[in-house]
Amino acid sequence: MKRGAALLELQDVDLEVLRSQKRLDEMPEKRLILEVRHKTRDVTALRAKANELVSRLGAAVSRHEDECAMIATKLDDEQAKLMSGDVTNPKMVMNITREMDALKRRKDKLEMDEIELMERVEKAKSQVAKVDAALGQLSAKEASLIDQYKTKGAEMISEIDRLKARREELTHAVDAQTLTTYESIRESKGGVGAGRLAGTMCTACRMELPAERVAELKSGPDIAMCPQCRRLIVMTPAEDQE
Ligand SMILES: [Zn+2]
Q1: Which terminal residue of the chain has fewer beta carbons within 10 Å of its beta carbon, N or C?
Q2: Whole-angstrom distance, CA of residue 4 vs CA of residue 17
């Protein structure tokens, strides 16, 4: 392979590697995975809040139950006192009766409140279940995106490996001096280090070159420097024949 042709193919391969690398970096799956992870984090925070509400309401229900039990014991005690016949003073009987009425009212109120609390517990629990279902869906989505990313990514990575192997072959067909120049220009000029003389145009900068420059280039070596963009410019056999 002639060094000019090798250099031009090397340029093509290098651009293809850059494009593949960029595609790999910009895979939509990568962005979607990050989005799903952000959402998962938000929903997990929601679940923590919903769980906290369930336990807070549960604790309130327990407190109500404890107080109701306490009042029930007290009512039994007062009732026993009345039934024992020990309390005969009508004023004391009236006091105990009044006390018992107050306890019953308190107990009724607590029981009503407890029913309301239990309804709220149920609602909070169903909220937790909904959040759990959403988390399950998000986790399944993330797993499938990771699979897609790995499959597509693997294809791109093997394509890049193939291009790099071809690159290695091509570098052997270009002399070391030209290769070094090409690499340094490629690095400083946006990934493009070499072009071809196509008619009177440099394919690297797409500038028409003055006729006398073209004549100079054609009478010179097969690889020269573009007078416009200062990149390597290759005289291809087809152009030589013109
Ligand atoms: Zn040029």
Answers
A1: C
A2: 20
Distance 47 CA to ligand 1 centre (A): 61
Name residue, tokens 């909220």.
Answer: 127
Range of the domain at 180: 176-241
Determine, yes or no, domain membership for 2: no
In Å, what is the CA distance from 112 to each residue of 1, 92, 116, 119, 122? Answer: 94, 30, 7, 11, 16
Residues with CB under 5 A from ligand 1 (ion): 202, 204-205, 226, 228-229
88 located within any domain: yes
Gap between the Cα atoms of 132 and 43, Å rounded? 9
State in Å: Cα 240 to ligand 1 middle.
18
204 C-alpha to center of ligand 1: Å?
Answer: 5
Determine the distance separating the centroid of ligand 1 and the alpha carbon of 14, expressed in angstroms. 18
Tell me: do 84 and 201 sit in the same domain.
Answer: no
Q: Do 74 and 152 reside in the same domain of the chain?
A: yes
CA–centroid distance, 225 to ligand 1, in Å, is: 8
Q: Residue 240: pLDDT above 90? A: no
Q: Is 80 exceeded by the pLDDT of residue 242?
A: no
CA-to-CA distance for 105 and 59, rounded, in angstroms? 22
pLDDT tens figures, 23-64: 988 999 989 999 999 999 999 999 999 999 999 999 999 999
pTM for this prediction: 0.61
